[in-house]
Specification:
Blueprint: H1 2-54, H2 62-71, H3 76-88, H4 93-105, H5 108-113, H6 119-143, H7 169-201, H8 204-211, H9 216-229, H10 233-245, H11 250-262, H12 265-301
Length: 302
Amino acid sequence: MRAWIQREAVYLWYYLDIQFRQIAPYWALGIVLGSVVSVFGRKYIHGAFQKLSRRKTGWLGVIPASLLGIASPLCMYGTIPIAASFSEQGAQDDDLAAFMMSSILLNPQLIFYSTALGRTAVLIRCISCFVCGCMAGWLVRLVYTSRGRTFFDFTGFHEGKSRDTDPNLFMRLMKNIGRNIRATGPMFALGILLTALYQIHVPEDMVSGLFGKNSGFGVLMAATLGVPVYMCGGGTIPLLQQWLLDGMSMGSAAAFMVTGPATKITNLGAMKIVLGWKRFFLYLLFAMVFSWCCGMLVDVFF
């Protein structure tokens, strides 16, 4: 037993070291650049959405709204009060749906961090999240806004005070970086640990068999797996990187990258508050269907 424990410890340390060396630079880059956007760019992003909400852009309004959602560095619990203030200023629910959906799926920090998966994966992630935001906005406009019905209920939500208030810009940035490290560091470490354990104990052909290309079942499995497995971007990037190396198709990875953040427990809690049960289930159904369709399309072209 002692020899087995020592052997496992050596293997674990070896794979932990490899994973950390491969992933840590991307995580650090994402932290720094994400904080730069948060400290210096957030007010311009939100200001652009306020200007958008004052214009009658019709069906095309969801396009810039989705892009601004991706650019926004806030988490969902930070996005909802902002969206509530936009709603008070006259923003349409379809634009808000596009903004919030894409904000759930992606942010600047996660874009930079996802470069660890390769250019193709980053491109697919950005495009799929943008399209998902647009589709959410158009569906809300078709079923709700165009019929004079409301989709969101922001009762009780008000925009909170920003924590980036230090008068010294450098210290403001350092404090933001520190908060990001505290928020994502534990999940980053857990993701590294799970990936190392996976490399030691799971056969490589298992992933290619389950999530290989041209397998609708594999894409569906990946979409479903994203529900319980997704922790945060910092925790799943190492796992996704290894799964792709072991034969997971890009379509399955794309499906996982949509359902994961869409069904992350904290995001689900926030969405339930502003949607109610009926529209909350519609949100879940949309996320699952879109992720499966997205994964199938990606496997056709990649």
